[in-house]
Here is the input.
Amino acid sequence: MFKRKTKGEAIFDMFNNFGMLIVCFLTIYPIWYVLVNAFNDGQDAMRGGIYWWPRQFSLQNFEAVFQSSGIMTAMGITVAKTVIGVFVHVLFTAMVAYAFSRKGLIGGKLYIFLGTVTMFFGGGLIPTYLLIKDLNMLDSFLVYIIPAMFSFFDLIIFMTFFREIPDGLEEAAKIDGANDWSIFLRVVLPVSMPVIATIALFHGVYQWNDYFTGVIYINNTDLQPIQTYLYKVIAQSSSNQMMAQVPGGISKTVTSQSIKMATMVVTTLPIVFVYPFLQRYFVKGMMIGSIKG
Amino acid sequence: MRNQPHAEPAAETGGGTAPAPPLEDGRKFARSRWLKKLYSQRHLQIMALLGVIWMIIFNYIPMYGVIIAFKEFNIVKSIGEAPWVGLEHYKEFFANDDFTSVMRNTLGISLLKLFIGFPLPIIFALFLNEIRSFRYKRTIQTISYLPHFISWVILGGILMTWLADVGIINKILLSLNVIDQPITYLAEPKYFWGIVITSDIWKELGWSAIIYLAAIASISPEMYEAATIDGAGRFQKMWYITLPGIKATISILFILAVGGVLNSNFDQILVLRNTLNESASNVIDIFVYHTGLQNGRYSYAQAVSLFKSIIAIILLLIANRVTKKLNDTSLF
Here is the structure.
């Protein structure tokens, strides 16, 4: 790094650094805007003009969010569907991937062919809806878990990883009398943490952000996730629904707009906190999934 | 007790304990060997078949359900019982006024997304790669893909706040005298495509760039050193070394992008659409959702949906052929 920079290089670096700063600002600012407005007094925010910092700092919007039973129920559903969904998806997909990845599995090529077809062809919205209806999963919590418990794309990522595990590890377990189930659970899964983290993150983000399942398959508002709840509030402009659920005591200063902002912050925060810790995994996961797959 | 020295190699996968069968009949032997192998991998077969059963139920049964596009399906009867109507639903769709506007919106938004949204991450990755400081580069990257993790519902909420008549965009434009009265952007069809495409780029730019950055990182540094000795500048290195170095990645991702282009809109547009911008926001997926699930016209909606799949497959094949011709990279 002791090379002398030419004048052209210096100008290039300057413009490049500056351009990147602009991209970063444009990316982060809309999110920042929501944050400062969520921390500002609702009535005061109505006057507008809050761009950089809260003018009248207030936590009442968040109090209102946490006291609203509707929002909290929806949040609970989201947490439950994400935790259970990720657990089931990772375990099931990894299990199938483990079996598919074994050499000499009878029917292995056929199984993989069946899966590959599903990546390019599908039934689409209507037949899937009719299937879910026939399976009696409308208005059931299971609709978040079972149709999402397997993904052939994720299976390929798992399979690529499993094939690189040294055979000796499994052979040793076999000699000790382990069967395929215990080899999978006690030998293969523990050494596959990087790929498990990748898939868990991908699926966790999907489960957390998915609003559409709640929109089409769920009528019972006690079963809808927070994203579906927000979709109804935001896209269908029924903000009054939000205000109606806020307990009377603090509603003097909060507005439907400010609660909306606070709910958006509360909904997004877990993901924003988790992802920097997991980013080294998903870069690897994306490479395996997109290039080698 | 494990594999005897004389056992056939095929028995290696499992813990077959029975002695080798007599050799009188070759076929019988092969068959029993096959059964033995199957028995030895019975646990693996259960694992695999659970996955296959899942795929049959959740992937293949809906594929069979596609045939309702050619039937008059009614919710009280089963798919098999519904009477065939041939291409009736297609005739209706092509004759309908909706056809032109739905096709225009679907193809318009998808192709604009493809031609603007596809190259931008490549350009971003090329320039990000030129940042010297590792920590600065890492920080920019971390910030740039943050929006990927935020749902379209939240982003839709942000956009609606920004684009409202009292929103920040109007305030800026008013104070710069670009406009003289506030515009309600989401109520005007002419702005809808722009909003959809811009916000999609905003959400996915950094995320899409990851894969290119990874590909760039695998280019040999010697190439750059050689180019430096030959007197190449920064732009020349980008153009003659980096870009050709990631050509294969670009090709594969382009084919995949073309194949999925008609699907990429649904979540986003469902949030951003409203009755006022309908003439610009009614894409095939939205149309299918409304006619099928909300108005209960399952067969008609399915016919339209199948039409979309066929266009998608044709686009995929064209893209595959074109990239194959151009630089010998193809998906199949």
Q: What stands out?
A: Chain B touches chain A through 94 residues (CB under 8 Å). The CA atoms of residues 4 and 19 of chain B lie 8 Å apart. Residues 298-327 of chain B form the longest helix (30 residues).
